[in-house]
Amino acid sequence: MRYLALVTDYDGVIATRGRASGTAVAAIERLRQSGRRAILITGRRLADLQQVFPNITQFDCVVAENGAVIYDPRTREVTLLARPLPAEFVNRLRELNVDPLEIGQVIVSTWLPHHTSVLQAIQELGLELHVIFNRAAVMVVPAGINKAFGMEYALRKLGLSRHEVVGVGDSENDHSFLERSECAATVANAVPSIRKLADVVSSAANGAGLAELIDELIATDLSRLQDRMRQNLVPIGRLADGTEVTLPPYGRNVLIAGPSGSGKSTVTAGIVERLIQMAYQVCVIDPEGDYGTLQDVITIGNQHHAVTVNDVLAILEDPKITLNVNLLGIPLTDRPQFFGQLFPSLHAMRTRTGRPHWIILDEAHHMLPVEWSHAARALPQNLGETVLVTVHPGHLAPLMLKQVDTVIAVGRSPERTLQEFAAATEQPLTWPSGLAHQKDQVVIWFPGKDTPPFSAQIIRGRAERIRHHRKYAEGNMNYRSFFFRGPGNRHNLKAHNLAIFSQMADGIDEETWLFHLRRGDYSRWFRSAVKDSYLADQAERIERRPDLQPAETRNLIRSLIEARYTLPE
Question: pTM of this prediction?
Answer without folding.
Answer: 0.77
